[in-house]
Amino acid sequence: MGSGRSDDVTRVTQVGMNRNPVTDDIGVNQSADLSRCYPRGQPGSDRTPDNHKISKSGHHGSTFLEERDSMQKKRKQIVVLPLDAVDLDKEIAAVMKNQILTVTKFMKVGFLGRWEPEIEAALSYIIWKLSVEKNHTTFGMQLLGTRFAGQPNRQRLVMLAVLTIGSRYFKHRWPDISRQWKLGPQAQRAVDWIETTVLILQFLNLLLFLHQGRYPTLTSRLLGLHVEPVRVTRRVGYSFMVRELLWHSFSEILNLALPLINTITIRRWFNWLRRNRGTSGRYQQPIVNPVFTTTTRCAVCNEPPIQPQCIGCTHVFCYYCVQANVLADPQFECPLCGFCSDGTVRNVPL
Fold this sequence. Notes:
Elements: H1 2-18, H2 21-37, H3 49-103, H4 111-114, H5 116-130, H6 132-135, H7 139-144, E1 146-148, H8 154-180, H9 185-212, H10 218-223, E2 227-229, H11 239-257, H12 263-275, E3 309-310, H13 319-328, E4 346-347
Antiparallel strand pairs: 1-2, 3-4
Helix pairs in contact: 5-8
């Protein structure tokens, strides 16, 4: 009995001398953790502690990197989108102004130049009425998915329109105002100083915006209207693509069919129906040659005739006007009296 107890004590002493307290404790703790996560007899119990620890730390590291990348990307969007929205608003106003210039290009020269500041102010007010006042966001901000944070009250939105539209109108009209009221050079220097100060403040506001990403313009900073992105769930739809394909096919059909249609004949019949004549002009008898005077005008272009020609009626045509129409339609009718030619064109004696 005594010898057995001494052998057991000797073995325990050797185990204690060979034991590493740091690594053995870690191994015991990891084994206990794994035994709780993967009980014996369940899948995954054969995984080693080292592999489990490496995979877990790698997962947390990738998640952190993804979150950091998403935050940086979101910050770039917050900085870039409001600036692009301001440029889009300017382009929308320029497109509307160009449309008005296109519609009124045949009016009296200098008519729009006189009222150009008022027209631009009216267009800006219409855009503000349909976008900011109605939806609390501009058209450019709607296109890029941004808006004014919170619910700005109407007073701040009205002040935004007054400061934005009114400042541009005053800048355009200031030369006329100073000339009409006979203001001296002191007023001009004061206006120049104010304009320089505003430009400096706009530059400083741009630097602050690039750092903070809240107020893209000086007016929005003065009124406390900062911009935030809108979380919109985009749905992929093919209605636009289908519409474009249908319109492309329809345009190809028109390009193929329109050259085959004799529009001149159709126009002649419409003119005949409009005049409601009992007999066609082709049965009219030719009359004497028309008289050419200094007040004579071409029946087609309404200009003094160049190499005057006639087709049998009392009206005079330019050579190129009548030849082009007769070549396209041998039964060309005079646009003034409806006389139908037989394809013969004669010179008018001067």
